[in-house]
Each structure stands twice: as C-alpha cells, then as structure tokens.
Amino acid sequence: GAISIAIASEATLKGLKVSMVAVEKSPEAAAWLNKNIAKYDLPIRVVIEDAATALPDVKADVVVANPPYIPNDERLPIEVAKFEPEMALRGGPVDGMQIPKLFIDAATRLLKPGGFFITEHHEKQGELIRSALAKDYLPAQTHADLTGRDRFTSAVKR
C-alpha cells in the first residue's frame, strides 16, 4: 500500500489526474491502506484479493508490484521478522521467484500493449525477473536502489 500512496501523492502534487487500484491480499493491510487513503484524500480504490486473479476486466497503463520475493530459506533480519508477516515477505522455495512470477503473469494480463511494468525484487533476482519478462515485454532494465543494490526491474509490454 505504501507504494500506491507515494505514487498517488506525487501525482496529486504535480496536478496529474490519475485513477488507481491497489490490490491487497491481507484484509488487515487493506484496512491500514484505506485509513491512509482517507487521511490524504487520494484517488485509490482498494481491492482485497489475490493479485494473480484480481481485476479480471481491467486494462491498465501502468502496473507497479511489490510482491513477496524473499526465498523461503533465507534468514530475515530481526527487525523485519519481528514486524512483517511472512505472507508479505516469502516468495517461495529456492530462489524466491514463485510469487514474483505470479505477479508478472498478472501484470501481463492487466497491461495494455505499450503499458509499463515495474517490480521490486531481491537483489539477486534481477536476471531471473528479466528472463521471466522476456517473452511478453520489450527488453527489461534492472535499477539499483539508494544503497546501490539491484532491487527494481521495469519493462514495457509488447
């Protein structure tokens, strides 16, 4: 939810008219998101659903994803493990790509041709994400976060 709040806030500050839908799997996370949307009066509709099947009739210009991506066997820092639910963090066994691939499939379904996709991911997953995007997207680019780690990949749908 924090990403949708940030994007909608920035768009509003710049005077841009946007219509956004945020998909949250957790009702608790959706409740917090709705409180923040109301607090800042932002143009975001919240849907409580699994991202893999959400919004079957929607065609979007942009999809931004922050899926669970941490491999199941990777040890979490205590400050993360203490406050974040496992469901929001764990991307699956071995490489953590099980859930990110579901989000990529959902983005591919949701995006119009020429639509823009960006996703956060584990610093070791850039190549895996680019490979998963190769069939349906123009060549993807991986971007570093503020600490210099490869943490985001973007692409345009063919």
Would you spell out the secondary-structure blueprint of this structure?
Layout: H1 2-13, E1 20-24, H2 27-40, E2 44-48, E3 60-65, E4 70-71, H3 78-81, E5 90-92, H4 98-110, E6 111-120, H5 126-133, E7 141-144, E8 150-156
Parallel strand pairs: 1-2, 3-6, 4-5
Antiparallel strand pairs: 6-8, 7-8
Short summary:
The chain has 158 residues and is an alpha/beta fold. Helices cover 32% and strands 27% of the residues.
User: Which percent bin holds the helix content?
Assistant: 25-40%
Shape: globular
- Count of alpha/pi helices: 5
Please mark out the parts with pLDDT under 50 across 5 or more consecutive residues, or reply none: none
Beta-strand percentage?
25-35%
Q: What is the averaged pLDDT score?
A: 97
In CATH, the topology of the largest domain is named Rossmann fold
Q: Which CATH class of the largest domain applies here?
A: Alpha Beta
* Overall strand count: 8
N-to-C span? 27 Å
How many domains, as an integer?
Answer: 2
Output the helix-strand order.
Answer: HEHEEEHEHEHEE
Structural class: alpha/beta
Radius of gyration based on Cα positions: 16 Å
Per CATH, the architecture of the largest domain is 3-Layer(aba) Sandwich
